Amino acid sequence: MSSNVGQKSLQPSQPGSAIGERGAGATCREHAQLGRLQLRGRGGPGDASKVFLLLLVLGAVFMAAGCAGTNDVGGTRLAEDDGVALPSVVPQQPPAEEPVPASESTPEATVPSFATSPSPSAVTLTLPPDDVPVDVRRNEVDGAEMVLIPAGSFRMGSDPQGDPYFWGAESPMHEVALDSYWIYRTEVRNRMYRRCVEEGGCPWPAKVYSRTEPDYYTNLRFMAYPVIYVSWYAAAAYCRWAGGRLPTEAEWEKAARGRDGRLFPWGNEPPDGKKANYCARECPLASLRDQSQSDGYRATAPVRLFPEGSSPYGVFDMAGNVLEWVSDRFDATYYQWSPTENPLGPESGDRRVVRGGSWASNAEALRTVARASLEASDTLDMVGFRCVVDN
């Protein structure tokens, strides 16, 4: 069994715990409880509580009616989703479930302790010129825009001497050579995943709502948002249906950081509300919230909405929005003995790697080197994926 040491876990936290202050994931259980508290109101089972609930339901109906017929999201008018046709038939509804979950299932993991990290402003690094997109094309199956990542080597991982947020499992920094490949420029969206479901290539997401929206997967307003509540198996099934596969951990990291060893897709500066959708001022997770920044979203955002945060190859949302499944199993010591050419990850292990941070992450979890892991069957409202296609 693989170790979790040196990674950030995605388990629910208790007030004052290490993960509550510095973890990569969200505290799902406590916010599900908060949602139930809001629905039930503060009264008992008497008439006042019933009236409160009735008013809340009626309010939700009027809000839904007011949103019908528009694709305005967050004050931004969405385009026609890169030319991908909307499915003409609304998929059949999955088995009925409560709009607000009674509890959230999250993986158990060991939370390592960390020394206080120095300020990122103390790090200075002159970045050499890096790659730019050399070729862009669309996947004929799902319409996804892909960029070619050229063959060659890059610096993978980090060390405590150059990484102010160092967790442990990113070490050592090492040279890795990869063949060329095509990677999706955005995370897979609800619109794209629905088509796979309709054609029988993918299972339904485990839940059709999000933390903030009761109809996240079925409402046309959210078709340009990343699909969530999909397991590693569902993500792999989608990529096979689309003629590709999940990226390896090395392929994901090269596409995110380029060849120069930068900490974030855009460079070494900490994130701000123009570069990434992360746990900024609007974030519901108080223990992780960056009050100095605003990205405009409480949870997920439409893809490619933060072009200033794109990678050297022009890949969007490699930091924030949703964590992304990759193909590799997780081992905290893997970099110490991994191959230097086209590494595929450990051959055994119970957990799969997720990369990139999410809307529920603080700055350190958005690093291009940050490693976290989940059970392959886990489904969360902060985890999605993108695919690669062999060149």
What does this structure look like?
The chain is 17% helix and 12% strand. By secondary structure, it is of the alpha+beta class. The model is unreliable at 1-6 and 11-131 (pLDDT under 50). The protein has helices at residues 18-22, 28-40, 47-67, 190-198, 232-241, 249-257; strands at 72-73, 76-77, 136-138, 145-149, 152-156, 174-178, 181-184, 323-329, 351-355, 371-375, 383-384, 388-390. Strand 1 and strand 2 (76-77) form a beta hairpin. It is built from six helices and twelve strands. It has two domains: 26-68; 86-92 and 102-390, paralog of FGE (formylglycine-generating enzyme) (Alpha-Beta Complex), CATH 3.90.1580. It is globular.
What is the terminal-to-terminal distance? 33 Å
Mean pLDDT, rounded to whole units? 76
Which residues form runs of ≥5 with pLDDT under 50?
1-6, 11-131
Which architecture of the largest domain would the CATH scheme give at its second level?
Answer: Alpha-Beta Complex
Beta content comes to 5-15%
Q: CATH superfamily name of the largest domain?
A: paralog of FGE (formylglycine-generating enzyme)
Outline: globular
Q: Major β-sheet, in short?
A: 4 strands, antiparallel
Helix content: 10-25%
Helix/strand-derived class? alpha+beta
CATH class of the largest domain: Alpha Beta
In total, how many domains does the architecture comprise?
2
Rounded to an integer in angstroms, the radius of gyration calculated over CA atoms is 21 Å
What order do the strands of the largest sheet run in, or round the barrel if closed? 3-4-7-12
What name does CATH use for the topology of the largest domain? paralog of FGE (formylglycine-generating enzyme)
Order of helices and strands: HHHEEEEEEEHHHEEEEE
Q: Can you count the beta strands?
A: 12
The number of helices is 6
